[in-house]
Automatic annotation (TrEMBL):
Pfam family, one: BA14K
Keyword Transferase: no
Lipid bilayer topology: Single-pass membrane protein
The name this protein goes by in its record: Lectin-like protein BA14k
Signal peptide start and end residues: 1-24
Domain of life of the native organism: Bacteria
Amino acid sequence: MKPLMMILGGFCLTAGTFTAGAVAATALLAAKPVETHSFDAGATGLWTSQPVRVDREDPTLQRATATEQQLASLPPAKERSDASERNNHAIDDMVTSALPVAEEPTVDERLLAAHLDWCSSRYRSFSPSDNTYRPYSGGKQQCVSPHLSEAAPRLSASIEPAHEEEAVFQQASFATSASGTATLSQAHIRDCSQRYRSYRIEDNTYQPYGGGPRRQCD
Protein backbone atom coordinates (compact mmCIF):
# COMPACT_ATOMS: atom_id res chain seq x y z
CA MET A 1 0.00 0.00 0.00
CA LYS A 2 2.81 2.34 0.84
CA PRO A 3 4.53 2.07 -2.57
CA LEU A 4 1.24 2.83 -4.27
CA MET A 5 0.81 6.05 -2.29
CA MET A 6 4.33 7.15 -3.19
CA ILE A 7 3.67 6.58 -6.88
CA LEU A 8 0.43 8.60 -6.77
CA GLY A 9 2.09 11.46 -4.88
CA GLY A 10 4.95 11.68 -7.39
CA PHE A 11 2.51 11.70 -10.27
CA CYS A 12 0.50 14.55 -8.71
CA LEU A 13 3.64 16.66 -8.12
CA THR A 14 4.81 16.12 -11.68
CA ALA A 15 1.43 17.04 -13.12
CA GLY A 16 1.25 20.22 -10.99
CA THR A 17 4.73 21.32 -12.04
CA PHE A 18 3.95 20.74 -15.70
CA THR A 19 0.67 22.67 -15.44
CA ALA A 20 2.32 25.67 -13.76
CA GLY A 21 5.04 25.79 -16.42
CA ALA A 22 2.47 25.65 -19.21
CA VAL A 23 0.46 28.51 -17.70
CA ALA A 24 3.58 30.69 -17.28
CA ALA A 25 4.73 30.04 -20.85
CA THR A 26 1.28 30.88 -22.21
CA ALA A 27 1.21 34.17 -20.28
CA LEU A 28 4.63 35.22 -21.56
CA LEU A 29 3.81 34.38 -25.15
CA ALA A 30 0.42 36.09 -25.05
CA ALA A 31 1.79 39.41 -23.64
CA LYS A 32 2.00 42.35 -26.01
CA PRO A 33 5.54 43.31 -27.04
CA VAL A 34 6.92 46.58 -25.65
CA GLU A 35 6.95 49.34 -28.21
CA THR A 36 10.44 50.61 -28.92
CA HIS A 37 11.20 53.99 -30.46
CA SER A 38 13.54 53.74 -33.39
CA PHE A 39 15.76 56.75 -34.04
CA ASP A 40 16.83 57.77 -37.47
CA ALA A 41 20.55 57.38 -37.92
CA GLY A 42 20.75 60.73 -39.71
CA ALA A 43 18.75 62.65 -37.10
CA THR A 44 20.19 64.26 -33.97
CA GLY A 45 19.48 62.78 -30.58
CA LEU A 46 16.91 64.05 -28.14
CA TRP A 47 19.58 65.42 -25.80
CA THR A 48 23.01 66.65 -26.80
CA SER A 49 26.21 66.58 -24.80
CA GLN A 50 27.27 69.96 -26.21
CA PRO A 51 25.20 73.17 -26.51
CA VAL A 52 23.66 73.57 -29.95
CA ARG A 53 22.36 76.83 -31.38
CA VAL A 54 18.75 76.51 -32.53
CA ASP A 55 17.70 78.17 -35.75
CA ARG A 56 14.46 79.97 -34.98
CA GLU A 57 13.68 80.31 -38.66
CA ASP A 58 13.67 76.54 -39.17
CA PRO A 59 10.17 75.66 -40.48
CA THR A 60 10.35 72.16 -39.01
CA LEU A 61 10.38 73.48 -35.45
CA GLN A 62 7.08 73.53 -33.59
CA ARG A 63 6.52 76.19 -30.95
CA ALA A 64 4.70 75.03 -27.84
CA THR A 65 1.50 76.97 -27.23
CA ALA A 66 1.32 78.91 -23.97
CA THR A 67 -1.51 78.23 -21.56
CA GLU A 68 -4.18 80.80 -20.83
CA GLN A 69 -2.83 81.33 -17.30
CA GLN A 70 0.64 82.13 -18.62
CA LEU A 71 -0.74 84.54 -21.19
CA ALA A 72 -2.86 86.31 -18.56
CA SER A 73 0.14 86.83 -16.25
CA LEU A 74 2.22 88.52 -18.97
CA PRO A 75 1.96 92.34 -19.24
CA PRO A 76 1.27 93.93 -22.60
CA ALA A 77 4.15 94.04 -25.05
CA LYS A 78 4.45 97.83 -24.84
CA GLU A 79 4.71 97.83 -21.05
CA ARG A 80 7.37 95.11 -21.18
CA SER A 81 9.48 97.10 -23.62
CA ASP A 82 9.12 100.31 -21.57
CA ALA A 83 10.07 98.50 -18.36
CA SER A 84 13.14 96.91 -19.93
CA GLU A 85 14.25 100.28 -21.32
CA ARG A 86 13.88 101.93 -17.91
CA ASN A 87 15.89 99.18 -16.28
CA ASN A 88 18.67 99.59 -18.82
CA HIS A 89 18.93 103.35 -18.24
CA ALA A 90 18.33 103.28 -14.49
CA ILE A 91 21.08 104.71 -12.29
CA ASP A 92 21.67 103.45 -8.80
CA ASP A 93 21.60 106.54 -6.56
CA MET A 94 22.35 104.65 -3.36
CA VAL A 95 25.33 106.09 -1.54
CA THR A 96 27.47 103.42 0.00
CA SER A 97 30.11 103.89 2.63
CA ALA A 98 32.93 101.79 3.94
CA LEU A 99 32.67 100.05 7.26
CA PRO A 100 34.15 102.05 10.12
CA VAL A 101 37.63 100.95 11.05
CA ALA A 102 38.18 100.22 14.70
CA GLU A 103 40.48 102.90 16.05
CA GLU A 104 43.36 101.86 18.23
CA PRO A 105 43.56 103.46 21.67
CA THR A 106 45.86 106.46 21.84
CA VAL A 107 48.76 106.87 24.24
CA ASP A 108 46.70 109.08 26.57
CA GLU A 109 43.89 106.52 26.70
CA ARG A 110 46.32 103.73 27.53
CA LEU A 111 47.93 105.82 30.27
CA LEU A 112 44.53 106.69 31.69
CA ALA A 113 43.51 103.02 31.72
CA ALA A 114 46.79 102.08 33.39
CA HIS A 115 46.26 104.79 36.02
CA LEU A 116 42.73 103.59 36.81
CA ASP A 117 43.85 99.95 36.97
CA TRP A 118 46.70 100.86 39.31
CA CYS A 119 44.42 102.80 41.68
CA SER A 120 41.67 100.15 41.59
CA SER A 121 44.10 97.36 42.47
CA ARG A 122 45.75 99.41 45.24
CA TYR A 123 42.66 100.92 46.92
CA ARG A 124 39.40 99.00 47.29
CA SER A 125 37.49 102.24 47.92
CA PHE A 126 38.81 103.91 44.76
CA SER A 127 36.16 105.83 42.81
CA PRO A 128 37.03 106.43 39.12
CA SER A 129 34.40 109.18 38.85
CA ASP A 130 36.41 111.63 40.98
CA ASN A 131 39.77 109.82 41.21
CA THR A 132 39.61 109.54 45.01
CA TYR A 133 39.78 106.82 47.64
CA ARG A 134 38.88 106.68 51.34
CA PRO A 135 41.87 106.08 53.63
CA TYR A 136 41.50 104.39 57.00
CA SER A 137 41.86 107.74 58.73
CA GLY A 138 38.71 109.02 56.99
CA GLY A 139 37.97 111.62 54.37
CA LYS A 140 38.96 111.44 50.71
CA GLN A 141 42.33 111.59 49.04
CA GLN A 142 43.36 111.85 45.43
CA CYS A 143 44.91 108.72 43.95
CA VAL A 144 48.37 109.43 42.53
CA SER A 145 49.86 106.66 40.40
CA PRO A 146 53.15 106.41 38.49
CA HIS A 147 51.13 107.16 35.35
CA LEU A 148 49.53 110.34 36.74
CA SER A 149 52.14 112.79 35.47
CA GLU A 150 51.47 111.66 31.90
CA ALA A 151 47.74 110.90 32.20
CA ALA A 152 46.75 113.94 34.32
CA PRO A 153 45.49 116.09 31.38
CA ARG A 154 43.22 113.33 30.04
CA LEU A 155 42.14 112.27 33.54
CA SER A 156 41.18 115.78 34.61
CA ALA A 157 39.18 116.24 31.40
CA SER A 158 37.29 112.95 31.88
CA ILE A 159 36.13 113.67 35.47
CA GLU A 160 32.66 115.24 35.75
CA PRO A 161 32.25 116.70 39.28
CA ALA A 162 28.77 117.44 40.57
CA HIS A 163 29.51 120.96 41.83
CA GLU A 164 31.76 123.78 40.74
CA GLU A 165 33.54 123.87 44.11
CA GLU A 166 34.43 120.21 43.78
CA ALA A 167 35.70 120.85 40.25
CA VAL A 168 37.97 123.66 41.49
CA PHE A 169 39.23 121.43 44.32
CA GLN A 170 40.01 118.59 41.94
CA GLN A 171 41.82 120.84 39.50
CA ALA A 172 43.91 122.24 42.34
CA SER A 173 44.63 118.72 43.61
CA PHE A 174 45.80 117.61 40.19
CA ALA A 175 48.01 120.66 39.86
CA THR A 176 49.52 120.06 43.30
CA SER A 177 50.08 116.38 42.60
CA ALA A 178 51.65 117.08 39.24
CA SER A 179 53.94 119.75 40.66
CA GLY A 180 54.84 117.58 43.66
CA THR A 181 55.83 114.58 41.59
CA ALA A 182 57.45 116.52 38.79
CA THR A 183 60.87 116.25 40.42
CA LEU A 184 60.56 112.46 40.82
CA SER A 185 61.46 110.33 37.85
CA GLN A 186 59.23 107.53 36.65
CA ALA A 187 61.95 104.99 37.39
CA HIS A 188 62.24 106.24 41.00
CA ILE A 189 58.47 106.05 41.57
CA ARG A 190 58.27 102.58 40.02
CA ASP A 191 61.21 101.34 42.09
CA CYS A 192 59.79 102.64 45.38
CA SER A 193 56.34 101.23 44.61
CA GLN A 194 57.83 97.79 44.04
CA ARG A 195 60.02 97.89 47.16
CA TYR A 196 57.46 99.28 49.65
CA ARG A 197 53.76 98.50 49.58
CA SER A 198 53.10 101.47 51.86
CA TYR A 199 54.88 103.85 49.50
CA ARG A 200 53.02 107.13 48.99
CA ILE A 201 53.83 109.22 45.95
CA GLU A 202 52.33 112.42 47.38
CA ASP A 203 55.25 112.91 49.79
CA ASN A 204 57.65 110.20 48.54
CA THR A 205 57.48 108.33 51.88
CA TYR A 206 56.84 104.79 53.12
CA GLN A 207 55.96 103.19 56.47
CA PRO A 208 58.77 101.05 57.95
CA TYR A 209 57.98 97.54 59.19
CA GLY A 210 59.15 98.37 62.70
CA GLY A 211 56.74 101.30 62.99
CA GLY A 212 57.56 104.88 63.72
CA PRO A 213 57.39 107.90 61.45
CA ARG A 214 57.30 107.61 57.71
CA ARG A 215 60.61 107.76 55.87
CA GLN A 216 61.66 109.23 52.56
CA CYS A 217 62.26 106.73 49.77
CA ASP A 218 65.79 107.19 48.43
